[in-house]
Amino acid sequence: MTLRIQARLVARLYICLLLVLTAPFASEVLAHGVAASDKDLITQGRQLAVFIYLGAKHMVTGYDHLLFLFGVIFFLYRLKEVAIYVTLFAVGHSVTLLYAVMSGTHVNPFIIDAIIGLSVAYKALDNMGGFERLLGFQPNTKLAVWIFGLFHGLGLGTKLQDFSLSTEGLVPNILAFNVGVELGQVLGLSAILIAMGFWRRSAGFHQHAFAANIIVMTCGFILAGYQLVGFATQSSL
To answer: What does the domain layout of the chain look like in residue ranges?
Structure first.
């Protein structure tokens, strides 16, 4: 790997970190899920196209989801393996999203988003072999991805309830939203896999993999920290 390529790689990784650092100052960083600007799109009755759009937008713009999935596929080289892990995440995400909306289950979004941030840190630590070094064994990665998928879906299901969803056509709308999430996930992962494909063919991939996961883990802890600060601030009001 040439010095120029190495410099580009490091610059891009730190841009990722910078985006996470500045994200909490955006207008809706502490409101995980659908942007408030999309609230007007959610009206009465069945709105399949609208919910597909909202689901796709949620995934494509969900930096926490993309960071987690980036960590999940970091060392996956076969498309079959990628499909298995992504499917596990999607199933978990879909189950709790549907359950939360249909049952009216509402959890504190700050706590859920903090757990989502920790899921990013968890996967990065897993990629570095940290659990084997610290605990002496390797947790079940597939199970962990599925469980964190449950939390990701629960966070979004909680946020969707803020929009006073109509009971008319609710199930088809939520299913359409999940379809949109899958479409957005395919788009986001396609871009990640293409970039990873070029990076993996370089001579310095394994040399920089550890540093990359350090940065991803740092991003996860920063995301969790901001959410915990938001929770503490909210509780003190």
So the answer is: 49-231
Tell me which DSSP letter residue 41 carries. G
Q: Are 113 and 32 in contact (CB under 8 A)?
A: yes
The per-residue DSSP string of 86-101 comes to HHHHHHHHHHHHHHHH
What 3-state DSSP class applies to 45? coil
- What average pLDDT does the structure give for the chain? 78
Tens-place pLDDT, residues 25-40: 443 444 444 555 666 6
Nearest in space to 65 (alpha carbons), one of 145, 128, 129, 172: 145
Q: How far apart are CA 36 and CA 29, in angstroms?
A: 11
Which tokens go with 80? 């079959």
pTM for this structure?
A: 0.78
| Identity of the amino acid at 5 | I
Which runs of consecutive H residues, i.e. helices, occur in the chain? 3-22, 48-61, 63-72, 79-103, 109-127, 130-135, 141-160, 170-200, 205-236
The CATH T-level fold of domain 49-231 is: Growth Hormone; Chain: A; (1.20.1250)
More confident residue, 197 or 124: 124
Phi, psi of 162 (to 5 degrees): -70, -15
Q: Would you call 35 exposed, middle or buried from its count of C-beta atoms within 10 A (0-12, 13-18, 19+)?
A: middle
> pLDDT by residue (tens digit) across 169-194?
778 888 888 888 888 888 888 888 88
